[in-house]
Amino acid sequence: MKSVLITGGAGFIGSNFAHHALARRPDWSITVLDKLTYAGNPKNLCSLETNPRYRFVHGDIADPQVINSLFSKGLDMVFNFAAESHVDRSIECSNAFLRTDVYGVHTLLEAARRWPVYRFLQISTDEVYGSVRERAFREDAPVRPSNPYAASKAAAEALAHAYHATYGVPAIITRATNTYGPRQYPEKLIPLFITNALEGRPLPLYGNGDQIRDWLHVNDHCEALLHLVDHARTGDIYNIGAANERRNLDIAHLILEQLGQPVSLIRPVEDRPGHDRHYALDCAKLSALGWRAYIPFERGLRDTIAWYRHHPSWWGPLKSGAHAHYYQRQYGTEVFQPPDRLRGIR
Ligand code: NAD
Ligand code: TDX
């Protein structure tokens, strides 16, 4: 049995990965470590509780005591999903981002230096490149992060790279594009717009909505990570994308259309400072290892909408309390612009 640590496994991608890995790898025994921040949700893991190959530990990746006690018992693989992950929150205040996304990764790497592992996957993001310049980014393009979240992820990558070069920690860095699917906290574009549309509330679109992201289904993301743990070279960086570039405005239209809601729900709001206009990745390096994304966006989005439609008890409580305060701070009520601001870019 291989002993596998999944940090941040109560969050969106980490919880999907825990389910996916337990189903796909019968010889893996998984420990999920999670601090259970606002984004971590025990409900995401409750169906695993009876699985003898699964256990949960409540703890912080930046706490050396917890981390050392897990590593000292012997680990084969580490998948580090734990992070503060929302760009807008990092713009409001970046302290927690530096603590978890940088110091937390340092704590994990120090432990991996002391108690060697077979593979250490540092889950990173296409945001480290900044907005696309001439062409889609290959892994050797310079990093130029535009917001504190992206900068903290780039710093973590630099540490992982340094620990590979200096101490031989078998780190692999993955840079994935925008991921969507079930169990994503309703602060990110797709789950926020789906749940707002289900409630008949406005969809706050930054600027004029012509920013472009490449959307990757979470199951494809998880499958790519399993592929990389088997085939990637340690010390290397791998882009993970779906070649599925869409404008934010078009995403809003698709969601409203599928839910039978009017386009008038789209509300332009003040743009995000430092907003990256366009992300696009060249994924030839990963393709050469025999992987590609399989889930067509139309199907993935339809299934994701159906999941939120059928799980109001999952997201409903998340949109009250602390989230409602965040929402008010982030979007206000007075900043909603009249829909005619979108005229000309439909
Ligand atoms: P998420 O915010 O849904 O989940 C993050 C999880 O980490 C939560 O369960 C949270 O409780 C936990 N966590 C936070 N701080 C912690 C700490 N100090 N110790 C232990 N656990 C802690 O994030 P996500 O969208 O699932 O992203 C997972 C990873 O993938 C992140 O590293 C993110 O940078 C990366 N990523 C995300 C996307 C995306 O589109 N969502 C794309 C590319 C890369
Ligand atoms: O209310 C909104 N209105 C809006 O127009 C929100 C929340 C977002 N947007 C826009 C901003 C972006 O152009 O939608 C696009 C996607 O925004 P987010 O969902 O916040 O994602 P993004 O900023 O692109 O970052 C995501 O992808 C890379 C994840 O949050 C990161 O964790 C990941 O690393």
Q: Could you write a compact summary of the structure shown?
A:
With 346 residues, the chain is an alpha/beta fold.
Mean pLDDT score: 96
Uncertain runs are none
Q: Helix share of residues?
A: 25-40%
- What is the terminal separation in angstroms? 54 Å
Strand content: 15-25%
Could you tell me the radius of gyration in angstroms? 20 Å
Instruction: Report the total helices.
Output: 12
Adjacency order of strands in the biggest sheet: 3-2-1-4-5-6-10
Bound molecules: nicotinamide-adenine-dinucleotide, thymidine-5'-diphospho-beta-D-xylose
* Largest beta-sheet characterization: 7 strands, parallel
Per DSSP E runs of 2 or more residues, the count of β-strands stands at 12
Which CATH class of the domain at 2-180 and 214-240 is shown?
A: Alpha Beta
- Work out the oligomeric state of the chains in this entry: single chain
* Overall geometry: globular
What order do the SSEs take from the amino end to the carboxyl end, as H and E? EHEEHEHHEHEEHEEHEEHEHHHH
Structural class: alpha/beta
CATH topology tier name of the domain at 2-180 and 214-240: Rossmann fold
Write the layout of secondary structure elements.
Blueprint: E1 2-7, H1 12-24, E2 28-34, E3 54-58, H2 64-72, E4 77-80, H3 87-92, H4 95-114, E5 119-125, H5 148-167, E6 171-176, E7 178-180, H6 189-199, E8 203-206, E9 212-217, H7 218-231, E10 237-240, E11 245-247, H8 248-259, E12 266-269, H9 284-287, H10 297-310, H11 312-315, H12 322-331
Helix pairs in contact: 1-7, 2-4, 4-5, 6-8, 6-10
The structure holds nicotinamide-adenine-dinucleotide and thymidine-5'-diphospho-beta-D-xylose (TDX).
